[in-house]
Amino acid sequence: MSEHVVPVRVYLAVFAALLVLTAVTAGVATVDLGIWNTPVALGIAVLKAVLVILFFMHVKYSPHLIWIAIGAAFFWLLTFFAGTAADYLSRGYLGTPGS
Predict the structure, then answer these.
(1) Coarse DSSP helix, strand, coil percentages of the chain, rounded to the nearest 5 percent
(2) pTM (predicted TM-score)
(3) What residues does each domain of the chain span?
(4) Are 40 and 33 in contact (CB under 8 A)?
(5) pLDDT tens, 11-38?
């Protein structure tokens, strides 16, 4: 397997994008978006994580088996989030004990 050399300008562009997204996160935190505060913050966080995974961890230039492993990891993470959300959202469904 040959090594892929990433130009420095790509790293600088990704770094600049991460800085901008961090500033956007801080700016959005000061704005009241109601129910959309958490989804917007999570969306920005996911975008930053994808940039780090693709470029700084060199996944963009990796074999397809690495992509499958990362996809499986994200599927597992989403499974945990879904289980946590299902538990949290169903807490009041049956009522409180003793009522």
Answers:
(1) 75, 0, 25
(2) 0.73
(3) 1-57, 63-91
(4) yes
(5) 999 999 999 999 999 999 999 999 999 8
